[in-house]
Amino acid sequence: MTSxxxxxxxxGSAEAGSDIxxxxxxxxxxxxxxxxxxxxDPKNLAMAVAVEAxxxxxxxxxxxxxxxxxxxxxxxxxxxxxxxxxxxxxLLLEFASVCGIDIARAVERKMERxxxxxxxxxxxxxxxxxxRLGDEPSADNQ
Length: 142
Ligand SMILES: [Mg+2]
Hints:
This protein is mainly α and 142 residues long. It has a single domain (12-118), classed as MazG-like (Helix Hairpins), CATH 1.10.287. The protein is built from five helices and no strands. The protein is globular. It starts with 10 loop residues before the first helix and ends in a 19-residue tail after the last helix. The model has no long low-confidence stretch (mean pLDDT 91). Bound molecules: magnesium ion (MG). Magnesium ion binds at residues 52, 55, 84, 87.
């Protein structure tokens, strides 16, 4: 059992891991039925993740930051955002499968590293990269 940075145990994480594996199997089956594996190499999948992330961002283009969440009150916008978030996830999960990455484990490992890089007492309320946390807070976002 792994202890997560937020203090939760990983007993739920094992369950999430099996959910992820189930999704990955469905995604691989979907691609295989269409004989798309020939196109789904790591480079193409990495590019596809970035393209879909761009499509996700496009829903927020020119939306002021303080209106971004409220933009989801519009049903059509919300559906579009959900579709693009799903596209990002689908392609990322397929990328992980094709590359032999245990994505649940990779996320846990990265969160553990982030907890070390972003100690709560230094990072709370600050939007700066980990290697700038030692700088004076007045230098944030410059
Ligand atoms: Mg899309």
